[in-house]
Amino acid sequence: MTEEISYPEYSTHYPLLLKNCFMRPLSLYPDEIGVVYRNDAGKYFRFTWRQWHERTCRLAHALKSLGVNPGKPGQPGDRIATMSLNHHWHLETIYATTCTGAVSHPINIRLSLDHMAYTITHSEDKILFFDDAILPLVEALYDRVKTTVQKFIYVSDKPGKPKTRIEPLYEYEELLKEQPPTFDWPDFNEDTYSVLYYTTGTTGLPKGALFTHRQLFLQTLYTTGNRFLLPTLPNDPPNPNTLAVLINVPLFHIHAWQAPFAYVYMASKIVFPGRFTPENFCELVQTEKVNATSMVPTMLAMLIEYPDFHKYDLSSLITVGTGGAALPLGLKAKAEKIFPQFTVGSGYGMTETLAGVIGATIKRNMVDWPKEQLDQVRVKTGLANPAAIDAKVIGEDGKPVPHDNETIGEIVLRGHWIMEKYFKDPERTTTAWRDGWFHTGDAAKVDQDGYIIIVDRITDVIRSGAEMVPTVLLENLTCNADFVLEATYVGVPDEKWGERPMCLARCLPNSGKTEKDLLKYLETAGVETGKLAKWMLPDYIVFCDEIPKTSVGKYDKIAIRKRIDEFVSRAEKVGKM
Amino acid sequence: MTEEISYPEYSTHYPLLLKNCFMRPLSLYPDEIGVVYRNDAGKYFRFTWRQWHERTCRLAHALKSLGVNPGKPGQPGDRIATMSLNHHWHLETIYATTCTGAVSHPINIRLSLDHMAYTITHSEDKILFFDDAILPLVEALYDRVKTTVQKFIYVSDKPGKPKTRIEPLYEYEELLKEQPPTFDWPDFNEDTYSVLYYTTGTTGLPKGALFTHRQLFLQTLYTTGNRFLLPTLPNDPPNPNTLAVLINVPLFHIHAWQAPFAYVYMASKIVFPGRFTPENFCELVQTEKVNATSMVPTMLAMLIEYPDFHKYDLSSLITVGTGGAALPLGLKAKAEKIFPQFTVGSGYGMTETLAGVIGATIKRNMVDWPKEQLDQVRVKTGLANPAAIDAKVIGEDGKPVPHDNETIGEIVLRGHWIMEKYFKDPERTTTAWRDGWFHTGDAAKVDQDGYIIIVDRITDVIRSGAEMVPTVLLENLTCNADFVLEATYVGVPDEKWGERPMCLARCLPNSGKTEKDLLKYLETAGVETGKLAKWMLPDYIVFCDEIPKTSVGKYDKIAIRKRIDEFVSRAEKVGKM
Description:
CATH class of the domain at 49-212 in chain A: Alpha Beta
Largest interface: A-B, 70 and 70 residues
CATH architecture of the domain at 49-212 in chain A: 3-Layer(aba) Sandwich
Shape of chain A: globular
Oligomer: homodimer
Strand order of the largest sheet of chain A: 2-1-11-10-12-13-14
Strand content of chain A: 15-25%
Number of helices of chain A: 17
Number of strands of chain A: 28
Largest sheet of chain A: 7 strands, mixed
CATH topology of the domain at 49-212 in chain A: Rossmann fold
CATH superfamily of the domain at 49-212 in chain A: ANL, N-terminal domain
Radius of gyration of chain A: 24 Å
């Protein structure tokens, strides 16, 4: 009998790797512009897919020559950190790192110095790439990370090294010059780790969430398929064949919601603004004829206030996704007034689950609904992808809550791209994963149609007596007031009720409105319409010039609670409880 | 230190299983009609996704009670065979079998009795499901398979068992009655085998090609994504939100090109015609407002000849895919005349690779091309899916042929859904898999744009002197003659040249044309236009009432070559060589 020779590595076990993402544009559209960056000074950098890939190949050779080692399942390769804004260098670094088998660690540069130093030493980053603009930050960190980081790479569009004590310091563009423009991308096990993201550390030290190639590539495949499976509404503009997409969400924030993988795979034109500013946004949409973009609600609020907004032609824009925080209906209404063809979607995710595990999917039986009714679906947190992600909202007894749009429980998840374990942190892994479910710590209810509606972080829920105050509902209603730009709610300790709600609101400049006006609005638009019970009205309202936010733009309720006495003292006591 | 508890089975190793296909329609559209069947007598059977799933759950319980055992990686579960046409029972059986971990073996009922008996005993089928209409065939096979098959299940829309010596015999609908309508579908390793398909055995005994859950589900995910990534042409009708798809290609023929998985996952309305007939086709398209369908060229030719064709409203039909054999341009031109909104695509695949590993993809830079130019792309064999399948055309030296649209080599493949091994046949596995590539035995060339263009089976290539005759080009040209319905070419042994081409053609009834007319046409449309060299013209032309075909509708060149003397004696000797 012949000895059987087979090749599972090329058939049943053909690996799901991130390099597959760039194989599509490279083989189908090598000479089309794939990646665009506009720097602060307004200079444009444009690369065809072939050119971008050649640069990535050169960088892969450079990483090898710098001694970067690949990993294997269960054993991460060398960690390569980036402290960078959104540009082609960052995208090249992420691909060259992961596709040679090492681990990409994009650092959230909005963390505190302490937390940044912690993530670098905890991750044991071997090489650190950083932007010229970020040099002062790296210098401030240097003494705390210099025994961990072996090599620093300086990323700049200007030649030459800066005057700095950081060493050894290499220039990105110099590294590329010496290297060949092709690279034989290796096949390896799909369970090899690819990226390491740290949480923002609002509940202690940041935690490192590791993802494998398989997880990220499957997310890419599902995402691409889902775009096709989304029903078309009667007035939807046709999808452009070459989607131009502007990536505002920082690449260090849950991988800009996986944009670097999905849009490369789709061979979309990827447009990078460096950092988000309203001016950069408008310039790039106009020049690159951007069709799609995503942003956190704060960016949307900044755009709405941008005085030069009307000077630009933004008519190419078809879809604007939001996420990172629940989208207040009021903010949405304001955006619709000034954007042509504005439609929004909402999604839910966290560092440990990747973005968009749950999305506000419109079902095809809804396509003829009036816009107002559709929008109510669009701002729900949504439905989990049924074939990829298993989601439940469970009560304290561990059982799913009834679909009554009322009972509040915790969102638990499992599925292809839910993080398996925190890096070097078995204790917190064991806390998060219980009974075969990843516990998100987010509180939600489920409506009659099975849509999950997020209420708050479990720890942020305001409990008044035996009841939970519906924070997100209150936030949405408050933002519907035409003089309010953004608003959030926290609990104030109360002898009788345990906690009572306080509203922090930021109003339009010169609105001339008072806290009492806002309360009156909530009574009219909330209590009288039956949306709110009277006990849900805030006891305190405080108008602020700025509401504290986390490094990723969410309301920082921990920071607010730390300063609770200060806010209470400034607040108008409006409550009647 | 805490002992780390993690759940790779619910995260990094969350399995890719076929049950995920039906999770989508079940959770999003449970009350929409999902599966429709029209029987020979014109009676309709319609099921919502919930109803269809309940029936599948009952069947899963029945399989358990009949003693069906699941498999594990490397060790297939019990094989459950079906001898069935295209209907809901067949779809239920495929899902209940695979999703309980057993192996579905759809038998090609157009094989010879010998080959059918061989596949059943080689596969060791434990249970055999068969249609009432197929009873005589099963009776003819019975003595040869009764020691292998332990139980027979009779599938019929009429109650009661037939009078037959086959035993033990169960009634499908009776089995379901006793069972509960829910089933706790198990999670298991994605490398578990799901389906076993036998090749048609044109080159010896049929070979069994095994596929895992992972392979089929990944194919589904890629297929779904690709539909979105296909560019939209200026005059394309909009995609309907609920695609109604008519499945003509038998489920036993490479899983009807994976339709049972892709369209369930997409929550399309799946319409089954039992067996393909022009009447059934037209009735179903009209009644169910079918948008999409696929067929082999022979079915298309049958439709074109159907006299009642014009009595039906087929305006819902948007796309008609063809495959299984190269689509002659002439047949396409005829179809376009009588179908409203007819567009065709072409694909390539085989039992071992699944259908559609290579497809005639239109690139987005071509969308403004004139229709005639686009159609020339559409009938090319096409491009491999760049992220899923790796394809090369290699010469005898093992090196890729130049992209010169001329040099002929063999198509070799590897990727997610290329079969790893033949079932219980190490020798033929080793023949097919060499140097990390699956050798298809199909001859092709590659054009300047990288499109693969199939020429013939390596063994069917006609060699005249040192040259290879471009069979597919000749077939296409011949079918362009307005009096020709279908045509193929085989080599006739020749003392001087080794082989010379013979044309077998089937003409329109009462065309009044002769073999000489066809030769003249080939000279005018082929040689004079520069498409053919003179030496490529056939030496022999024979008009037939029927061209021998294999059980899956391809020209059976082995059968033709066996009868070569007969055909030569009937042929008009027209050649000048």
